Input
Amino acid sequence: MESQLKKLLLQHRTGRLKTPKLIRHLRELPYRDLKFAKVDLHRSLRRNFPEVIYAKGKTAAQVVAVAEALREAGNPVLVTKVPGETADGIQKRAPWLTYFPGAQLLAGPAGFLKPKKRSGKNGICLVVTAGTSDIPVAEEAVVTLQLMGCGVKRLFDVGVAGLHRILDKRRLLRQAKAIIVVAGMDGALPSVVSGLVAAPVIAVPTSVGYGASFEGVAPLLTMLNGCSPGVGVVNIDNGFGAGYLAAQILRSAP
Output
């Protein structure tokens, strides 16, 4: 958004963009009214990252219309919670979006997906899972972090049923400036990790588990009641929210 604004002002200064047309462009900058949605085009100026599209409940045409409005304003586009069949319909209309099936995300344009030269300058976020079934939610966090220009590493399948696995990775844990821990079942892993490191830990409960896990409520309550301080908890299966928060932590580092 900032680059788009600079471009408009430069075009006006050099005479390539007349004042009435500049005013029309500036009118649209706060938000674009698509009738079914009012796309917040100023969010990237306020928060350093644009509005994110939640795909559930939207048609492919609606998702594409919002995505195009964001892209035209010079923003990266992130679409979350996109099942494969919905992704196909969206990509037919917007082939510039890349689908990440493991994370159920669409992102683009391609230029925003390339590794940034300064990626990781404020440290790395480590994304940890208790089990392999937790990986889709973890990958949602990974792609979010990458799109936001942050360095990220993965550490998967190190849950408390085999505690030696996470203890064996203490050096890697201590290198991270922020850690996301994704776990279902009993949801105990975030407390274990937090007890080993000084970095902030973001806990993500998943809906992975047997009947008494209540589709993620059991690990959510465990994480909220964890005994180790320094753990923040996001909602069930909210890998995007964890990635976004971790990116804000890394960006605020001196």
Observations:
- The longest strand covers residues 124-129.
- The mean pLDDT is 89.
